[in-house]
């Protein structure tokens, strides 16, 4: 898939923030300066800055510009559907994905049934993937992909990006998700994989849907709480009382 100019600019600025060329608390160059620097339009620069804002890397301040936020933790957007591969690329984390488990099943794993008690029995593909940044495990993603519509999943696709495989190989249109975020005790296996001193992890439980409203995936994503922060963007809507 060809990257847009705004994607390339966002990735470049994110890399500069990560390497402290743009430091926390400092203002980025103005939109006009960035337009000249990257040889593009102001609209393209604004799209790139909007991506960085959504990722929690910068904050736009009216009349001043875009200020760089503290990057002590990786920023994971709550709203929207962003794959880890896309986040890795946007933030230049140089993360590695290790496939722990990849197998077909006739029904959900028991711990999925506990988290998704409403889900009926259905065959699918179960995947466990450990995300490692700077040799430190930060996320353990556990996915159950329903069959149909996902009947096969090559290991290479699981290592690279499941969503890229679904959208570009299977030609399915991923549309929306519902998410619940909790802090929960995890079992010894997951604690060991994430190298946690404590048994508590941040758990993001997701129902993921195609454009035709088909539920195609359930996800339990366990995060090392010391490594990630979750960001969202909310706009106030005034309601007449």
Could you explain how this protein is built, in words?
This protein has 241 residues and is of the alpha+beta class. The chain folds into 2 domains: 5-68, Arc Repressor Mutant, subunit A (Orthogonal Bundle); 84-223, Chorismate lyase (3-Layer(aba) Sandwich), CATH 3.40.1410. 29% of the residues lie in helices and 33% in strands. The chain has 8 helices and 10 strands. The strands form 3 sheets. The protein has a 6-stranded antiparallel sheet. Strands 1-2 form a two-stranded antiparallel ribbon. Strand 1 (58-61) and strand 2 (65-68) form a beta hairpin. Helix 1 crosses helix 3 (42-54) and helix 2 (31-38) crosses helix 3. It is globular, with a radius of gyration of 19 Å. The mean pLDDT is 88.
């Amino acid at each position: 898939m060809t990257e847009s100019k705004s994607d390339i600019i966002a990735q470049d600025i994110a890399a500069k923030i990560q390497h402290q060329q743009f430091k926390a608390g400092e203002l980025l160059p103005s939109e006009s300066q960035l337009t000249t620097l990257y040889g593009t339009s102001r609209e393209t620069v604004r799209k790139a800055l909007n991506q960085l804002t959504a990722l929690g890397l910068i904050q736009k301040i009216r009349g001043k510009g875009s200020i760089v936020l503290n990057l002590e933790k990786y920023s994971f957007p709550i709203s929207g559907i962003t794959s880890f591969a896309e986040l890795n690329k946007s933030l230049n984390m140089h993360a590695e994905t290790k496939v722990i488990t990849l197998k077909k099943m006739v029904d959900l794993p028991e711990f999925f049934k506990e988290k998704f008690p409403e889900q009926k029995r259905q065959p699918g593909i179960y995947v466990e993937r450990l995300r490692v940044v700077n040799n430190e495990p930060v996320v353990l993603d556990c996915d159950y992909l329903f069959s149909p519509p996902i009947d096969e999943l090559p290991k290479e696709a699981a290592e690279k990006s499941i969503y890229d495989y679904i959208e570009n190989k299977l030609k399915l249109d991923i549309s929306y998700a519902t998410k619940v975020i909790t802090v929960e005790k995890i079992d010894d296996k997951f604690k060991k994989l994430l190298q946690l001193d404590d048994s508590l992890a941040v758990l993001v439980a997701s129902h993921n849907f195609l454009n035709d409203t088909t539920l195609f995936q359930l996800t339990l994503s366990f995060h090392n709480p010391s490594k990630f922060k979750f960001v969202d963007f909310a706009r106030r809507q005034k309601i007449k009382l």
